[in-house]
Amino acid sequence: MHSIEELAGQHFDAVIVGGGINGAGLARDLALRGSISGFRLRILLLEKSFWGHGTSGRNSHLIHGGLRYLKNFDFRLVREALEERGRLLRLCPHTVRPLRFELTCEGLFDKLFYGAGIALYDILAGHHRIGASSYFGQRLSYWDAASDSAALVIDNVREARHYGATCLWGRPVKRLWNEGVELTNGIRVKASCVIDARGPWIQSPALRLVRGSHIVLPRLYPENYATAHFHSDGRIIFFIPWGDLHPVTLIGTTDVDHGASADQVAISGGEIDYLRAITARLFPHAANFPLLGSFSSLRPLISTPGRSATSTSREHSIAFNAQGVLEIQGGKYTTYRAMAEEAANKVVAKIAPEAGLGAIFPTREQPFVVATERPRDVAARLDFARREEGCSTLEHFMTCSTNWAWQKRWTSDELRPIAAAFGGVGIDEFLSRYSPCS
Ligand SMILES: Cc1cc2nc3c(=O)[nH]c(=O)nc-3n(C[C@H](O)[C@H](O)[C@H](O)COP(=O)(O)OP(=O)(O)OC[C@H]3O[C@@H](n4cnc5c(N)ncnc54)[C@H](O)[C@@H]3O)c2cc1C
Q1: Does the pTM of the predicted model rise above 0.90?
Q2: 37-71 pLDDT, tens digit each
Q3: Distance of CA 157 from the midpoint of ligand 1 (Å)
Q4: Ligand 1 within 6 A of CB of 330
Q5: Distance CA 380, CA 397 (A)
């Protein structure tokens, strides 16, 4: 692997800033196009922290069409997401798996309304339908999919590397312009095309930052299905069976306008109370379950005047800004591959218009060749994370690579053997940042 010092002053075809799913997906697409066509592209992906450190590692982990967007008549978005859901289930079976959802309903009107919504969802899915839904009766149900979203980021990075891209973490970029980037340490790298995939860190007046938070409680019920609850305020709250170290339930999400910096994102007491109150109403036996963990991240949504945080569309925008930098904004994790393809088309049209790279779409059918099941045993998992994922700190390992941070309340004695793999540092910081407040 190159160090950034070695790359100073070098020229790349494309430099991508941001190692979330959008940056990693684009790096894989471009590297794969170059490899298949024989027109080798020099691609550099730069991440300031660790892979999946932003929203891509801290979301609801669902690969879904988005049943609730039907309420906003976002049919095109739902259809595209359902098609991508089908594709990811086929191409990434190691990280994306089908998950059945039961819908809570209060009264006959709810049942008829949501039953019709599920029927429409299945029609839009077409041959990408996963399993049999239930539109009538006591319990409405439908199928979607879940993933380990940080793992899929890392798989995209590993694939991009496999096909020749240079991917470096721990490299914050200070300045981007149409001909290159400058890192915070002053090193400059030149590029024919610069792509801004910094997600919530993109500074654009067109973006509205909306915070979404989750809480984690012990498993609410033993069966392996999720519950979807349409709340009276228009939000959908998911109860998702989760956890490989301990069986837990992931509960979220909220939608709160975020006024602070993208580096300061944490759940508020009000958000915890809101999620716990809904949980207690639907699952009274869980009212006093201990809070095991919580996490928050930001949705950078394209502002739509007059719309609430919840009803603002999840559509994306991929366009060159006034400085000539290609910005990837908005969208959903589920549609990352399609977004990467659209962005790659714009990149190759700029850097190699005659090479025919705009007419090949390899990520539509190409399975992941470097993908691997993550081991469950702690020692093997540590070894895998360090060797295969480039995992470098206790925080990276616990909050992103494994999600173990949220699966129990940790003590420093329990963390010590894990931290030893990272030189024994980071325990105090980990406990102060990730111990739940109540
Ligand atoms: C609470 C919540 C739940 C969600 N749940 C789902 C879901 O279940 N399914 C779904 O489809 N979608 C979901 N989404 C949406 C989805 O997670 C996002 O659309 C997606 O993760 C955005 O990815 P990204 O790569 O654009 O951004 P990010 O993942 O935030 O990546 C941006 C990266 O840029 C890096 N970066 C920032 N500044 C710099 C710099 N100066 N130099 C170098 N690197 C930099 C950051 O460290 C970060 O890693 C959810 C969103 C939220 C907020």
Answers
A1: yes
A2: 999 899 999 999 999 999 999 999 999 999 888 88
A3: 15
A4: no
A5: 13
